[in-house]
Amino acid sequence: MSAVKIIAIGDNVCDKYLSRGKMYPGGQCVNTCAYAAANGVPSAYLGKFGSDEVAAYNQKILHELGIDISHCRHFEGENGFAMVTLKGNDRVFLGSNKGGVAKEHSFDFTQEDLEYIKGFNLIYTNLNSYIEEDLPFLHTAGVPIAYDFSTRWTDAYLEKVCPYITVAILSCAHLSAEDRAREMQKAADHGVSIVLGTIGEDGSYVLYNGKTYYASAVHADDAIDTMGAGDSYFAAFLCSLLKSSKSGALLEGTEEENAAHLQQAMQIGAAFAAKMCAKEGAFGYGTPIVGRTEL
Question: CB–CB of 275/231 below 8 Å?
Answer without folding.
Answer: no
